[in-house]
Amino acid sequence: MATGSAAAADTASGRPGRGRRRARVRGTVAWAVVAPFAVWAVLRLLPADVQFHWVQIVAFTPYVALASLVAPLVALAAHRRTPFAAAVCVTTVLAACVVPRALGSGQPAADGPALRVMSANLLMGSVPAADLVGLVRRVRPDVLTLQEFTPAAEEAYRRAGLGTLLPYAVSSPRQGVGGSAVFARFPLDAGEALEYGGFRQATATVRVPGAGPVGIVSVHPCAPRYVERLRCWRDGLAALPRPGSGVRILSGDFNATLDHARVRDLLAAGYRDAADATGDGLSTTWPYRPWRLLGVQVPPVTIDHVLVDPRVAVRSFAVNRLPRTDHRSIVADLVLPRG
After folding, report:
1. Residues 67-106: pLDDT tens digits?
2. Which residue of 91, 167, 199, 339 is most buried, as measured by CB atoms within 10 A?
3. What is the CA angle 261-265-270, rounded to 5?
4. CA neighbor of 145 nearest in space, from 75, 99, 206, 91
5. Terminal Cα distance for the chain, rounded
6. Which residue, among 226, 152, 239, has the nearest Cα to 191 in the 3D structure?
7. Nearest 5°: phi and psi at 40?
8. Contact at 8 Å (CB) between 40 and 64?
9. 3-state SS of 214-275?
């Protein structure tokens, strides 16, 4: 009799209703945490960079993948099975996009000569000649690709001895950010520069002893910083040559990460990212000076790459600091197929 009265009192007081409301609130909170990561994962899997602002933020996918671990934890704490299962799926998708960059991959059986490729964005030629030439002297690259290469920088670097270290050059200097160049230890044949939106991407063919001709592009499409620059960014990346009968290497500041569809298109065509191939794909390259957007410090991302022909083996990848530029320089040690 007493037990029945207590149950009736609980029902009358609305406790089961409060329990259901709490459950709904927990479920709503869990879904609210899962949803943004789910939307990000879906957009990341699409075969196109769907919108201007997405082009700007997709570069931060590695950070989002790490943050997405919060979603299953929240769903688990809320005791909500369906949001938990969805959160696990979303985190798995994002991890699958990012984690392989830290694991490395198999290498082709290249048995030709070694080739060391270095690249640097000079921030409108701001890198002091002594520092750039000093780094070249220490690193001893066979090929050097430069971006934001100005006429004044060209003169200063040659006076500092760059031409002695790398005597062959295809140079396309320009005031501001649009110039580029290829320097090499071996003879070069100039190609036609790729020019979109005022950005001139120098191209060349380097004649490496023991290998066939190797095509080189100093990559630097315009940055998609403003919506009106989106087209020239897309066109600059789309103009990059795909792998063909001859060996090609794309080296420079792509203004894009491995999460951008335009770069994924290049990888799908057969190129391999040197940093990704060696397990260094999460080594960030920009910005390496304080850079703020709407008052928020921008975390560093990986927009400088060396993309290599599928027949080229990658032995190592490294980044180096240079003063007065917001990019780190990159260096890849490659082995070419025998010519």
Report:
1. 999 999 999 999 999 999 999 999 999 999 999 999 999 9
2. 199
3. 145
4. 206
5. 96
6. 239
7. -60, -45
8. yes
9. EEEEEECCCCCCCHHHHHHHHHHHHCCCCCCCCEEEEEEECCCCCCCHHHHHHHHCCCEEHH
